Amino acid sequence: MADNVPTAPIRVDEVSSLGQRWYVLIIMMLVYTISIADRYVLSTLLGPISEELQLSDTETAWLGLPLALFYVVMGIPLSWLCDRTNRRNLLAASVAVWSFMTAITGYTRGYFDLLLARVGVGIGEAGGTPACNSIIADYFPADRRSMAMTVFALGAPIGAWLGSDIAGLVSTVHGWRAAFLVLGVPGIILALIIMVTIKEPKRGRLDAVQEEKAPKIMETLKFLWSQKSAVHAMTGSGLSAFWGWGLMWFTPLFLQRTYGMDEGEAGGMLGWIYLIGGIGASLLTAWVVARPRYTDPRKIARLLAVVTALATIPSFLAYYTRDLGFAQFMWWLFIPAIYFYIGPAFALCQNLAAPRMRSMAVAISLLVANVLNLIIAPAIVGGLSDFFDATGGGNADSLRLAQLILAPTGLWAAWHYWRAEKYIIEDQKRAIGYV
């Protein structure tokens, strides 16, 4: 790392036009949309899949394991490659692979066939988000990355809506296999668009700190571990995923068991909350963090802590009540919060890592988040639900109790965001050369 570095960023207009920046950002957002949709469709279809394959709640929970496991396992090597090679090409290949494997899921005929198809989805998705983050950081300077990453994060609610409402509707009319086909094909087209219309930007062109070669994995881990605010920010975002996405994984099945809905009705109800509430929260976040006062990263960390702590309350009440109207109102308060944190948390991660560490830093952050929300949280909820179910065969009350045990962990995430605020100024200067 250079010792004598400038204290101001490079002018962004010198390296790209406003139209170029926003075109790239929108394409990256669409990539994230497809990623979330292809991931969320399985949660929406847990009911008909588990019914057809005669699965327990624990076995149903493990349907998410192949994607999560291979997402985690492949995330580090693909991010290592991303920090050293053409990110555009890697991104296009990743999108094509996971979209093809999503479509293939529609042709599976058994439990293990389905698990194998989700392995392919996980491998492909491992190369997507780190590459998107790294490319966006070379189009937007540090003081605009929270805004840019929040726009990027719009892909989460849109993708969740596609994977819930649209997938649920298709499944109700044509069967659950058709939903995977409908969501898989658009990603293959998007991969071609990326190859044809996007060029690889010069790495680190908007940062004051410049590096000639990418550091080794252990050097990156050592640097990030020395950044106390990065440790707290990554832990906070991982626990936010554990709390929020962990609760939502079983929520469609919770609605079907507790309130007698089918997958189309459950997906339709949640889908509109994802779409309207999630997009609204993301746009509001983008507007807030674009204000001049939020160029101070301490205020970003504080905002994340406060919102996450407050949202923990409706996350508990939604599963405690037996009134569908009140539960729906609580989800309208809770679900937007699980989109609120994504953009600012990604931006903190970008600004606390040196330019040639960004893909790896994002991969490490995603590793923590996805182990927690795709492996540990479903296993805990599914295992507890089976433990509390004395009758066997799926029980609404046992699933409710399992969800209630997970809900308070939002406060744990909020604590880590609060602690990140203390160290973040000096850590950001050390990583990119300016605040």
From TrEMBL:
One GO molecular-function entry: transmembrane transporter activity
Matching InterPro entries: MFS, MFS_dom, MFS_spinster-like, MFS_trans_sf
CDD domains xref list: MFS_spinster_like (cd17328)
Pfam families from the UniProt entry: MFS_1
Transmembrane segments: 22-42, 62-82, 89-108, 114-136, 148-170, 176-198, 230-250, 270-289, 301-320, 326-348, 360-381, 401-418
UniProt keyword Membrane, yes or no: yes
UniProt-listed PANTHER family: PROTEIN SPINSTER, SPINSTER
Record-given protein name: MFS transporter
Protein's organism: Sphingorhabdus wooponensis
